[in-house]
Amino acid sequence: MTDTLRVTLISGSLRQASYSQVILNSIATLLPADSRISSLDIGAYPHYDQDLEDAGLPDVVRAGRQQIADSDAVIVVTPEFNHGIPGVLKNTLDWLSRPAFKSTFAAKPVFFVTHAPGPLGGVRAQYQLRETFASMLCLLPPVKEVAISAVADKLTDGQLTDSRTLESLQRSLQDFLRGARLQHRYE
Predict the structure, then answer these.
(1) What range(s) does the NADPH-dependent FMN reductase-like domain occupy (predicted)?
(2) Quick check: helix, strand or coil at residue 9?
(3) Fewer CB in 10 Å around end: N or C, the chain?
(4) Would strands 73-79 and 110-115 be described as parallel, antiparallel, or unpaired?
(5) pTM of the prediction?
(6) What are the boundaries of each domain within the chain?
(7) Whose CA is closest to 89, among 43, 133, 120, 51?
(8) Which pLDDT tens digit goes with each residue over 93-140?
(9) Where are the beta strands (DSSP E) in the chain?
(10) How is domain 6-181 classified at the architecture level of CATH?
């Protein structure tokens, strides 16, 4: 294990200036200063197709699997669409979940945050993410869920500025790092 925390960030939205990306940017500032942070582009993945996988793994999938394998933890921030996670995020997770029960996500600590414009903050997407990550055999340390309601009201000039949300994120992130046995890197 290295002293540098290696984290892969995944936005569940394709927009560059999405709420998900703004929140990920804020989370990145809460990580240890010497963390090595990388991002995964969910828009680069083709639609999952077993025939395509059998014909030869696409380069983007091979690279994404290696990126996850090289990470100490994965952090996902996503909007809730139609009471669930966006299809493009699910598609990426489907690619990265293979081979079944032996993927690079198996035993990988995962922290996730949802958001929505309404009062529930994406709690239905939380359930779907938890179910998906559990089926991928990810490590999901018990932490307080972070579901950001009325997300647009908590941002100013492309930054998460709501102090209560930032404090909640920081507490949950600390609990995650501790639960994932990564806390020594955070102190």
Answers:
(1) 6-150
(2) strand
(3) C
(4) parallel
(5) 0.93
(6) 6-181
(7) 43
(8) 999 999 988 999 999 999 999 999 999 999 999 999 999 999 999 999
(9) 6-11, 36-40, 73-79, 110-115, 146-148, 155-156, 159-160
(10) 3-Layer(aba) Sandwich (3.40)
